[in-house]
Amino acid sequence: MEVEKTKIISVLVENKPGVLHSVANLFRRRNFNIESITVGPTEQKDLARMTITVNEDEKTIDQVIKQLAKLIDVIKVEELEHGNFVMRELALIKVSVPSPKERSDIINCVEVFRGRVIDVSTDSLTVEITGTPDKIDAFLNLMKTSGVIELARTGITALARGAKSIRIDE
Amino acid sequence: MTKMSGAQALLESLERQNVDVIFGILGGAILPVYDALWGNKKIRHILSRHEQGAAHAAEGYARASGRVGVCMATSGPGATNLVTGIANAYMDSSPIIALTGQVPTVGVNSSYMIGRDAFQEADIIGITTPITKYNYQPRTVAEIPIVVNTAFYIATTGRPGPVLIDLPKNVQVETAEVEFTNKIDARGYKPVIEPDLAKISEAAKLLAKAEKPIILAGGGVIISNASDELMQMSDLLMAPVATTLMGKGSFPECHPLSVGGIGMHGNPAANKLMGEADVLLAVGTRFSDRATANLDTFCPDAKKIHIDIDAAEIGKNIEVDVPIVGDAKTSLKILHAALTNKLHKNEGSAWTKRVKEAKDQLSPLLKEMPKDLLPKALLTELRKLLPENTIVTTEVGQNQMWSALYFKALKPRTFISSGGLGTMGFGFPAALGAKVACPDRPVVDIAGDGSFIMTEQELACSVTENIPVTVIVLNNSVLGMVAQWQRMLYKRRYMAVNLGKTPDFVKLAEAYGAQGFRARSIEEFQKAVKTALKSKVTTVIDVPIGSEEDVVPFVPPGCGLPQQRGDY
Ligand SMILES: Cc1ncc(C[n+]2csc(CCOP(=O)(O)OP(=O)(O)O)c2C)c(N)n1
Questions:
Q1: Which of B47, B227, B404, B503 makes a 20 to 30 Å CA pair with B6?
Q2: Are the CB atoms for B243 and B260 separated by under 8 Å?
């Protein structure tokens, strides 16, 4: 994923059934591909935050945002301003470990990337890495030689920098 | 707080919204609501003969009156039969409420029932999510009043649209203490009414300098009851008013500054003048492709001002210079105030002369009555026969486009047509809904034979329920509009457009207990219409016309408005 082109839309929605369906439907209908979407509750229990990353041009993003804002269950929607937000992604990576030598190489790598080994078996390791998608890509690249058995990435979650917030009471 | 069933809570909530009529068809999963309707004196139930008819009737009711139309169906097939009608209301921004029964959420032994493909279960919430403004499936009796209040609020405010309430059967039956309030619950929904004043003054500056301003009025003007404001604006600017199909009737088409409809089958005067204007003031329109044709040649020289209540419409189809998000009526009023004193009225300007000239040269007016029974003659004559307040609905196809071209609408809410979805079969049930809303006014459906056959079963409803309307069938024995496309664009390779043996519409009407006439001349047509207007029963007037009549002129797909072709 090219992080430079990626736009991040932060959407505050009602935390109730059906909302993800209408949001997803809106993207599907206009043939906008969602790069990633993360959803979870917020500091206000009845609200959820969706963090949606898309790779589209300005005009399309503008339409997406207006269409999202139009949904009754969307309380607030905002594109996170380029360079003015923090974002993280988490990845769980299961790598095969053919020999003890490779095991220690991998563990070294994990340390450099400030990851953690969270599960070990005789011939595999499961690693947790958190960071920007770039950083996770870089780690995955290094693991290629050993062989990635399984990979799960959460997609980006993000917040605007500083005290600024998109909240309902703004 | 009163203890009552969900069905009773629903009806009480509807009554509090002043609902006086529901169009519907019952079935197992909605029976408790129908049982609660038994003996109800405030709400009239009208038994449609197909749920599509019920939904279109609700929309006709809404569009004729400006009030909310309500339709109701059972779960499964009843609900899915409503879908075309709901989609139609969504495209044309009509406020309707669709009530559907649903299988119970819990079955015997408290096991889940919904979601298990129970008998007549359809996921109508999933199905209608993209074609409703919102939809609900209340799971408790207590929440029903707020759900209904909010549904009506959402349906009628901002850009109106359909809202569906899907009521599981057990929720209809269960009882609870119910509190009726005026509360609504939609904190994420805040329609913008008041326009941004900075944008208004930008618009005013453009318009004050304009030498050749034109106004394009869409359905939003009618929905917002802004016809008076539109007239005042046109008067102040001395600007011609063109309309979209949905905007037909927002400005009296007999007015010297009315130039008719734009679009694929628009009035050539309107299409031409759009290309000459230097400032376009578009109000309550979404610049649909049928209206604008190819965007490259749409108003190429004009600065564009766009007023719309739906922010998502701004910049969706065309880029504009001054976007104004707000209600049409409010925005026009404020814009008018901003312009007064900035303009001196110039009745004899070069532009108004040009408008008159374009109208004289290009408008498809009937110069003299032809010998043959031509659609344009019929529709020109029809205008003379019908009182001004008559509500006209249309079906879809050539009948609709001929009506748009030759039947002048003089008042808002008197021309009701399926603009966005283009649904054949819309006009007749919509006419019934309009008649129920306005029982003292004549209602006429201008139909094609193909379209009328799609919902003709509602004749039974109109006769049984005493809802007399007039249907004029322009009977060409073909699916005319598609035949025209095959003639013009597919080298006359007629495929599947011949209707073969169409029914005898006079006998068909009589079979339902309605009355039928056949008109083979203008005189017979006049006589039939006059009789129909006085009649207490629905009248079908069958008018045989040639099967190769074209709607002309015509902007072929892909071309721009100025590239209209065809002799007319
Ligand atoms: C439900 C539906 N099916 C198909 C169409 C495609 N269609 C558009 S116009 C038309 C022909 C309409 O025929 P008729 O009602 O006889 O009217 P005419 O064009 O002859 O006036 C068809 C099939 C449609 N608009 N709606």
A1: B47
A2: yes
ipTM, 2 decimals? 0.91
The answer to whether the Cβ–Cβ distance between B188 and A14 falls below 8 Å is yes
What's the predicted TM-score (pTM) here?
0.96
Count up the domains in chain B and report the number. 3
Same domain, yes or no, for B55 and B115?
yes
Domain range for residue B486?
Answer: 369-544
Interface test with B, best of A72, A73, A78, A169 (most B CBs within 10 A): A72
Residue B286 lies in a domain: yes
Give 10-residue mean pLDDT values along chain B (568 residues): 96 98 98 98 98 99 98 98 98 98 88 90 97 98 98 98 98 97 95 97 97 98 98 97 98 98 96 97 97 94 97 96 98 97 80 96 85 92 97 98 97 98 98 98 98 98 98 98 96 96 96 98 97 98 96 93 87
Residue B416 and residue B309 share a domain: no
Cα B448 to ligand 1 centre (Å): 8
| A contacts of B311 (beta carbons < 8 Å) | 66, 69-70
Partner residue facing A72 (CB), from B126, B186, B314: B186
- Do both B334 and B416 map to the same domain? no
Q: Cα separation of A23 and A52, whole Å?
A: 10
Contact B506, B544 (CB under 8 A): no
Domains with residue ranges and CATH for chain A: 5-79 (3.30.70.260), 86-157 (3.30.70.1150)
Token couple for B454? 């799609």
Contact assignment for A21 to B126 by CB distance below 8 Å: yes
